[in-house]
Amino acid sequence: MKMSDEEERAIAAAGKDENGDSIFGEFYINITCAVITSTTITYAAIIYILHFFFSGKIVRKEIKADIVYEDDKVLAFNDINPQAPVHILVIPKIRDGLTRLSKAEEKHKEILGHLMWAVAEIVRKNNLGDFRLVVNNGPEACQSVYYLHLHILAKRQMKWPPG
């Protein structure tokens, strides 16, 4: 179902990051992971604003999170809606316009490498053994939060194909 221009403008205006960019990325333009109505648009907008808001609050330690790893560039915490016995979110502390992996620029090479190293460190320190690393990229991949983040899923037998 296509959104009206009014709905698109409302979502686009609802949340901006520190650079004035939409926190929704392209979500409001091409939604493929759910049937959308005006009610779900409002609900979705609230969820995305809250997640963006809370991610920043978690990084600044203004709200409590079950933090499992932190260094000067990365923060990792247990997901509040786990999809496996262990489900850890890993986020860069500074977003720098990195809304999703396909939007990465040369300036992001260092943080992208550090995120991967941090995943390995988290897995080692928490004795997770085998794990799955997930990065959802864009609406067709059901990316729900346009703040690059990695999901570490562990402690259960994964299946293939995953989706």
From TrEMBL:
Highest taxon, organism lineage = Eukaryota
Identify this protein by name: HIT domain-containing protein
Cell inner membrane listed as a keyword: no
> By its UniProt entry, which InterPro entries does this protein fall under?
Histidine_triad_CS, Histidine_triad_HIT, HIT-like, HIT-like_sf
Q: Where is the active site?
A: H149
- Can you give the residue ranges of the HIT domain? 54-163
Provenance organism: Plasmodium yoelii yoelii
Family matches, as Pfam families:
HIT
Citing just one GO molecular function, the answer is: catalytic activity
Regions crossing the membrane: 27-54
Q: Which UniProt keywords apply?
A: Membrane, Transmembrane, Transmembrane helix
Q: What SUPFAM superfamilies does the annotation carry?
A: HIT-like
Q: Which CDD domains match?
A: PKCI_related (cd01276)
